[in-house]
Design goal:
Immunoglobulin-like; Rossmann fold; 7 helices; Fibronectin type-III domain-containing protein; Fn3_2; Ig-like_fold; FN3_dom; protein dimerization activity
């Protein structure tokens, strides 16, 4: 330790709470720790303080510092994390499977590993330190996408290479990746593997991340459904159970053969395990079953000739109606073509009332133009026409009955119903006649007595009898 060339003299002015106030010769006042004062120093004591530099200790400290820096450089400065190398493993119509080598973090720590689709963050990779692949589903058919991995570490951010992938079309079957389970027919299994080879598809015995279908004919682990010894029923295979957990469709080998035959991706709805394949090999082309209306039913020769040659396609004749309110039997003086002449006629829906009445009038009916040249309404009666006498028919109404006369003519303007006129024309039914009664008396209604209004008695002015005063004492 080098001695100081000069020392400073101070007078202890005050001691308080472990601190000493020192006063110098040049009016310097400093605070000095009392623990550094010589033993026995009190207020008023004079002390000398000298200060010097320790270079030996400084050199030792510098050597220790730079040794630590060199160790940090050797451990963390020569290696750095490597960006992930992204690759395409499999592509289908609606999914893409990506893979990459195990990430190299060097001496850094991983913060996140994210997958980006078309420049936007899609999701984070789970277990990024050990996971080396991912499958992206729900993609569009025949569409181009870009994918990239971005790794963030304590040493910085490292993006991967950018890849461009286009999903397959419906006729591209090279993206099929099959895991075979238990197939009971060895020939069928061999044919399915050959078909996959022709389609440039892949297959394996273990389920992988890019497996698209699980193919088997039975969920059992053995082809016969029972173990070799003991005859105990065999349970579902491990790969079959894993396919169910991963929601991988379980189909029959016939689906692979159908895809090869159709040269496209065939829907798997008819090839699930447990269903009968809809299009087995060497079968006739698929035909849509006919409905009951299109099914071939036995027909007679007459009916077939009618549908082939006859223009009249009416199924059944109109039913016979004899009521007075039935539709007209003829149209323009001719029988209606859709019904027999002996039955009641029906008119088409588009016939007007004028066309209905323009027919041959029976005896006593006026023609559309009378003798004077005046046009009259069809269906009215002639003034000189008389109904035959009859005493069986009651009068139609009281208002239409005229004064009692023997067989008077009908009053002018009386219209007969179209049904009665047509029945008289055809001659098949007897015409309806009207008979005038000798006298019709209508008794007058009995007189109705008016109700007398009830007398209203006011409660406030109720009448009372005579009153009498009674003394209380």
């Amino acid at each position: 330790m080098a001695k100081s060339q000069e020392s400073f003299m101070f007078t202890v002015g005050k001691l308080d709470a472990g601190m000493a106030i020192l006063l110098g010769e040049r009016a310097h006042l400093i605070e000095f720790p009392s623990v550094l004062l010589p033993p026995g120093a009190t207020t008023g004591s004079i002390v000398n303080i000298s200060v010097h530099q320790n270079t030996t200790e400084e050199h030792k400290r510098d050597l220790e510092f730079w040794s630590l820096q060199n160790n940090i450089l050797e451990a963390y400065g020569h290696t750095s994390p490597s960006p992930p190398n992204l690759e395409v493993r499999n592509v289908t119509q609606t999914s893409v499977t990506l893979e990459w080598p195990t990430i190299n973090l060097a001496t850094a720590k991983l913060r996140s590993l994210d997958i980006y689709k078309n420049g936007q963050r899609l999701a984070a990779i789970p277990n990024a330190v050990t996971n080396t692949s991912t499958k992206l589903s729900s993609l569009q058919l025949d569409t181009e996408y870009t994918f990239q991995l971005i790794m963030r570490t304590t040493a910085g951010t490292y993006p991967s290479n950018l890849i461009r992938v286009r999903t397959h079309t419906i006729v591209d079957t090279s993206g099929i990746s099959v895991c075979f389970g238990t197939v009971q027919d060895p020939a069928l299994l061999e044919n399915a593997k050959l078909a996959l080879g022709e389609m440039r598809a892949k297959w394996s015995d273990k389920i992988q991340i890019d497996t698209t279908h699980f193919v088997c004919t039975t969920p059992a682990a053995t082809p016969n459904g029972a173990q070799a010894t003991g005859g105990i029923s065999s349970g579902p295979g491990v790969e079959y159970q894993r396919a169910l957990q991963l929601s991988i469709p379980v189909v029959q080998p016939h689906w692979i053969l159908a895809c090869l035959s159709e040269k496209r991706m065939v829907p798997i709805a008819g090839f699930y395990l447990g269903t009968t394949p809809s299009t087995p090999m060497n079968s006739a082309p698929f035909q849509r079953p006919q409905s009951m209306s299109q099914a071939s039913l036995p027909q007679s020769a007459s009916s077939s000739n009618m549908h082939r040659n006859g223009p009249n396609r009416a199924s059944m004749p109109a039913p016979q109606r004899v009521s007075p309110a039935s539709p007209p039997a003829t149209l323009n003086g001719r029988p209606h073509p859709t019904s027999p002449e002996t039955s009641a006629r029906s008119i088409p829906l588009d016939a007007t009332p004028e066309e209905d009445h323009e027919e041959e009038n029976p005896a006593g009916m006026r023609s559309p133009t009378d003798s004077a040249g005046r046009k009259s309404r069809s269906g009215t009666m002639d003034k000189n026409f008389k109904f035959p006498p009859s005493n069986t028919s009651p009068p139609t109404s009281v208002s239409e009955a005229p004064k009692p006369k023997p067989d008077p003519p009908s009053p002018p303007g009386l219209e007969t119903t179209g049904a009665a006129a047509r029945e008289a024309q055809d001659g098949e039914l007897t015409p309806i006649s009207f008979v005038v009664p000798s006298s019709v008396e209508v008794p007058p209604p009995p007189p109705v007595e008016k109700e007398k209004p009830a007398q209203v008695v006011d409660d406030g002015e109720e009448e009372v009898g005579e009153t009498e005063e009674i003394a209380l004492n």
